[in-house]
Amino acid sequence: MITSRKSYVSKMVSELKPSGIRKFFDLAAGMEGVISLGVGEPDFVTPWHVREEAIRSLEQGFTAYTPNAGLLELRQEIAQYMYNEFDVTYDPEHEVIVTVGASSAIDIAMRTILDPGDEVIVVEPCFVSYVPTVELAGGTAVTVQALQENDFKILPEQLEAVTTERTKAIMICSPNNPTGTMLSKADLEGIATYAIKHDLLVISDEIYAELAYDENYTSFAAINNMRERTILINGFSKGFAMTGWRLGFVCAPQEISEAMLKVFQYQLMCASTMAQYAAIEALRNGRPEVDMMVKSYRRRRNFIVESFNEMGLSCHNPGGAFYAFPSIKSTGLSSQEFAEQLLQQEKVAVVPGDVFGESGEGHIRCSYASSLENLQEAVTRIKRFVESLEK
Ligand code: PMP
Questions:
Q1: Global pTM?
Q2: How far is the CA of 96 from the centre of ligand 1 (A)?
Q3: Domains and their CATH numbers in the chain
Q4: How confident is the model at residue 24 (pLDDT cuts 50, 70, 90)?
Q5: In the chain, N or C terminus with fewer CB closer than 10 Å?
């Protein structure tokens, strides 16, 4: 007799938690009059001349697959961009892969480097996909907690305390989602010293590099001797306001890049062709719009950070990206309770900090990629909510 299975879903996937960001986004979508500071994406539309290039590529009938690693013309632009902006040299033919968003770059990086049981150190609070992608690749994610009192930067002794024989890589992100923290050159040098000492790879998620408010942004691969140990992840979603195009890239030394390309060719084959044509234009001529967007985000950051501090929710000043991560510990609520009650009572959607890791508890993530009028109204409502808790 055939006995039926309990479920066809693998044990690993059934144990995977859905993203906590989506949950709040979906909840808010079902309500009227909600101001959403929830989802992390630019509120700008992709510049018109960039969209036009995609249209032109369609008109010309460029509708076939591109090479697995992406159009060579785009890889050349990416290599040039990496050199011009971050002072790192990559060979466009062998060391650059155009991916389906930074998301697929993170995924192929993990699948490429991990054997079962290998450990990756993940600095939390962090983007929600890091831990699951390590686990789905058969590795073990070992989390370390960056704290607000340290500006959400990890201390070298914290890294030393969790490093084992199985540690293969460390995952970092600067500017960070959700904290906005930007690591200085000195911070990166500290991580470099640690990586050399333990012979580790560093996976550096630099998707928010364009949205660094400090002129002195440093790419991890630009740190002395680090290029050879770095898998550098970047993309077009944030800086160029192109989330829906699903286009990212990954740069790494040839041996690792070629290995990642093997995974990518079976996983996704190549990124969208029209998006790649648009990205060439974005890199060639998109600088004025990027600068304008950064200027606008900086103004909004100043407003929202000041507002949180004024209402007694201590908020550190983010050096980049478009997130404020104020502490809500003074209210006595958990981050889930705060976010749920704020949504019910005042119709403002934020993301509870605990979805980004243990040290995210006691915080909420507010994306300020929303109009200044929306932000002003959201601040009024959050203030009213916080005051109602004090009564
Ligand atoms: N890394 C970080 C830190 C992010 O915040 C995001 C998007 N929220 C991604 C990667 C994924 O970006 P993409 O749209 O390029 O897949």
A1: 0.96
A2: 18
A3: 11-46+288-390 (3.90.1150.10), 48-286 (3.40.640.10)
A4: confident
A5: N
